[in-house]
Amino acid sequence: MAEQVRGFLLYAKRWHLTRQAAITLACCLLWLVFPQRLYDVPARDGVQGALWPLIPVLFSASLPTVFGTSEGVYERQIPHPARLRALTLGLVAAMGSVLGLAGAWVDAGVAVRNTVLLTGLALCSIWLLPAGAAWTPPVLVPVVMWLVGTRPHGVAEQWAVLLQPSTAAYTWVTTAVLATAGVYGYVYCGPRD
Fold first, then answer.
1. Does pLDDT of 52 surpass 60?
2. CA gap 111, 102 in Å, rounded
3. Considering the domain boundaries, does residue 1 fall inside one?
4. Does 173 have pLDDT greater than 90?
5. What total of structural domains would you count in the chain?
6. Residue 179 pLDDT grade (very low, low, confident, very high; cuts 50, 70, 90)
7. Integer Cα distance of 166 and 141 in angstroms
């Protein structure tokens, strides 16, 4: 039996936008729970303080589901699939901006940068990896940065971009390059089959 839902509700149902909105709300609430301004070595007391810059990982880990289902059979039959992918990207960018603004009371630069960086990483993984493996880079890269990139006394390794302060200029360049590549790859090339 064919779906009878028309308009935006069809896309909200197919793309799991309600689930993504719930994940966004949960991530926004997590900004309030974790203590801030603490960086420590993993497996020590106070380690939860080093987790707050990684809250956008939860947001970006579910993006392959949203972006992958926007390439279903119904969506492939439309005349301009790039427009549909751009619409999907716009809706998720709106949710990501809400997440970035929710973390602004902690550190606006880190919250926005990490949200954009991880969304760009998720877009690149959707573009370059098969659907079953697209969730791994937005999850494993931050875990490696957190486990291996932290040093004692609140200092992070230079390559651990997600744990750097917002004043580090090279982290913004990395973010811009990754986000631009992800947007281009997803909108114009589409998800990998």
1. yes
2. 8
3. no
4. yes
5. 1
6. very high
7. 19
Write the CB contacts of 33 (distance below 8 Å, at least 6 apart in sequence): none
Residue 13 lies in a domain: yes
Alpha-carbon distance 143 to 137, whole Å?
Answer: 10
**Alpha carbons 93 and 66: distance in angstroms, whole number:** 12
Residue 189 half-sphere exposure, CB side, CA atoms within 13 Å? Answer: 16
Domain contains 52: yes
Q: What confidence category does residue 172 fall into, taking pLDDT thresholds of 50, 70 and 90? A: very high
Dist CA 67 CA 54 (whole Å): 21
Per the confidence metrics, is the pTM higher than 0.90? no
- How many CA atoms are closer than 13 Å to the CA of 168, on its beta-carbon side? 17
User: Domain range spanning residue 53?
Assistant: 8-189
pLDDT digits (tens, 9 = 90+) for 92-126: 888 888 877 777 666 778 888 888 999 899 889 98
**Per this entry, what is the length of the chain?**
193
Would you state the structure tokens that stand for residue 106, as one six-digit string?
């902690």
Q: For 103-186, where are the alpha helices, taking DSSP H only? A: 104-128, 136-148, 169-184
d(CA 105, CA 172): 19
Report how far Cα 38 is from the mean position of its chain's Cα atoms.
Answer: 23
| Paired strand residues for 151 | 155
Give the number of other CB atoms < 10 A from CB of residue 165: 13
Q: What Rg do the C-alpha atoms of the chain give, in angstroms?
A: 17
